[in-house]
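Task: sequence design from structure.
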């Protein structure tokens, strides 16, 4: 076994041949990049991403898009939940859609026109009116998800994206923020009204994913400080326990933390904490060891992971069958294990 494949010793079997099946171009491309280290510019990867555009679920998502760029109804894209404009844009990114495709570009440009707010961050609403939502609509989970998608699709230099990055970094650190909103982001370090004004770890994960998409050489001092603050917040608790601050009288972590799934909306899971911290170069922190051990314990005898949160019946098109071995969740797990120190050997 090559040294680069030592992580496979911790698996019950090698799932890579399954992930690399030619019938699943999107998963194959994601595996070549995330697990095997191929760049997006690799000719095979680029060709696979183009092929995936003509296969479900990407094909059906794009077929449902209005020529103007939105899904279901115009407006700033939150509703219907999981099938509206913002959700489809985020899911297309997670599926590795080709950034040069006309439908993808129309979606990005529509969101960049409708979702920027006067405070800089991206906001959403269920309104059908084509006007930006109020500043109080900006919260870390949605802003982070949108940032991740539009940066991945090549729009980092767009003024609205720069403003949303600045909003994210400043609200994480608390620097230069003149006003907080009791109905939205209500304080620094991920304080959020959706979590009874306590720090929201789901929001932190999504915000970190958005900032992680920025090429390291292009991260400002403020962004680097925000990443440090966010990473330390996520590492301040054991992700395998996920006892982050809980509002509304909850004394046990939300069970969704422990249900690995695909695609990913505003809910996060233990694996996504591992993913974003690994992407930010903190994946070998020993405080993540318990979470990796927990992750390894979920694999089946073929080294595969199950999709326990697929949003089946809620998205524009179903991605995978809930409760069944998942290529996308398995790829996510392998991407972490292949790019970080694994604490336990089989």
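Answer:
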């Amino acid at each position: 076994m090559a040294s680069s494949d030592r992580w496979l010793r911790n698996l019950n079997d090698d799932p890579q041949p399954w992930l690399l099946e030619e019938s699943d171009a999107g998963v194959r491309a994601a595996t070549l990049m995330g697990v095997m280290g191929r760049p997006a510019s690799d000719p095979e990867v680029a060709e696979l991403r183009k092929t995936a555009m003509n296969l479900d679920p990407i094909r059906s998502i794009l077929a449902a898009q209005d020529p103007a760029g939105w899904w279901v109804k115009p407006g700033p894209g939150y509703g219907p939940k999981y099938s509206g404009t913002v959700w489809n844009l985020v899911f297309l990114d997670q599926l590795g859609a080709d950034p040069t495709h006309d439908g993808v570009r129309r979606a990005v440009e529509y969101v960049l026109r409708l979702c920027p707010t006067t405070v800089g961050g991206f906001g959403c609403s269920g309104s059908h009116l084509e006007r930006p939502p109020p500043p109080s609509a900006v919260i870390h989970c949605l802003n982070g998800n949108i940032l991740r998608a539009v940066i991945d699709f090549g729009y980092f230099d767009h003024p609205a994206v720069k403003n949303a990055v600045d909003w994210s970094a400043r609200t994480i650190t608390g620097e230069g923020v003149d006003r907080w909103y009791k109905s939205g982001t209500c304080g620094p370090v991920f304080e959020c009204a959706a979590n009874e004004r306590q720090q929201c770890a789901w929001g932190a994960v999504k915000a970190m994913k958005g900032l992680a998409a920025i090429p390291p050489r292009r991260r400002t001092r403020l962004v680097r400080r925000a990443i440090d603050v966010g990473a330390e917040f996520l590492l301040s608790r054991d992700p395998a326990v996920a006892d982050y601050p809980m509002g509304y009288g909850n004394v046990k972590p939300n069970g969704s933390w422990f249900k690995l799934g695909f695609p990913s909306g505003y809910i996060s899971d233990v694996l996504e904490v591992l993913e974003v911290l690994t992407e930010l170069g903190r994946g070998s922190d020993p405080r993540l060891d318990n979470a990796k051990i927990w992750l390894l314990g979920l694999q089946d005898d073929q080294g595969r992971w199950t999709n326990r949160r697929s949003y089946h019946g809620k998205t524009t098109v179903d991605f995978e069958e809930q409760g069944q071995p998942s290529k996308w969740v398995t790829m996510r797990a392998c991407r972490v294990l292949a790019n970080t120190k694994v604490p336990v050997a089989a």
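The beta strands are 185-187, 191-192, 198-199, 305-306, 325-326.
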